[in-house]
Write a structure and sequence with these properties.
The structure is a single chain. The protein is of the alpha+beta class and 234 residues long. The protein has two domains: 1-37, no CATH class; 41-233, Chorismate lyase (3-Layer(aba) Sandwich). Helix content is 24%, strand content 33%. The protein has helices spanning 8-20, 58-67, 86-92, 142-148, 167-173, 221-233; strands spanning 24-27, 31-34, 41-44, 72-74, 78-83, 99-109, 112-122, 153-163, 183-192, 197-206, 210-213.
């Protein structure tokens, strides 16, 4: 205002227009800041038909991040026993109130919050796969661990929606409070070799730092990683 001899309303209008263009962003209670340029990470949502790798989870997700020259880390899992709400019950085809195991984690890239992921398993699986109840990470991945225990993931179905982040997501991802940057939420239901629903994984990604690839047909995993590098650097 002082430098350009402009009114308060003019400055506010200019900041609002800059925010619309994505040049600045306002954080509630903190102020208005120049927007940091973010190179998005490319996540492959489909698995390779030959190897079964991919899907944006576990070691392949880490490999995709590493292929872009960046570092992926995750928090220690938050493991709980809880009662299934309507959404979880519907996805796993169990009764509302049935006990499930939840394993939640926060995922970071180069130390920056990048996604939130929580998986839900019918508690009955713990009889065959007791490590689901452990408060430690399953280093080989839960899909590989369940396979060792005779529970083969034969396929999965993703349901994808884009929505305004809630307060917890806004705070965690450090997003503008006005909801201008939305989140992508993916509900993944996994099926075992007998067609039984054994897992629901809900992953939330901020839309400003993520892109997604869906492969159809025979696309080698090496091509997926090359694509991730090209997209992230471009």
């Amino acid at each position: 205002m002082a430098e350009y001899h402009a009114s308060r309303n003019t400055v506010r209008g200019a900041i609002k227009e800059l925010a619309t263009l994505g040049v600045v962003r306002t954080l509630h209670g903190k102020g208005t800041f120049v927007t940091e340029h973010v190179n998005p990470i490319v996540t492959t949502l489909t698995t390779d038909p030959e190897t079964g790798a991919g899907g944006g989870e576990g070691l392949v997700y880490t490999a995709e991040v590493a292929a872009s020259g960046r570092s992926a880390t995750t928090s220690e899992p938050d493991v709980r026993i809880q009662k299934a709400n309507a959404d979880i019950a519907h996805s796993l085809r169990i009764l509302v109130g049935t006990e499930v195991i939840s394993r939640g984690e926060q995922r970071y890239i180069d130390g920056r919050p990048w996604s939130l992921q929580t998986s839900f398993y019918p508690k009955s699986l713990a009889r065959r796969a007791p490590r689901l109840l452990d408060a430690d990470s399953i280093d080989e991945g839960t899909v590989a661990y369940l396979r060792e225990r005779g529970i083969q993931q034969a396929g999965y179905r993703d349901a994808i929606q884009v929505r305004i982040p809630d307060k917890n997501e806004t705070d965690y991802f450090n997003l503008p409070a006005d909801g201008r940057i939305q989140v992508v939420e993916i509900y993944r239901v996994a099926f075992d070799q007998n067609g039984v629903r054994v897992r629901l994984t809900i992953t939330v990604y901020p839309a400003d730092r993520n892109r997604f690839v869906i492969n159809v047909g025979r696309v080698p995993i090496s091509d997926m990683l090359i694509k991730a590098v090209d997209e992230s650097s471009g």
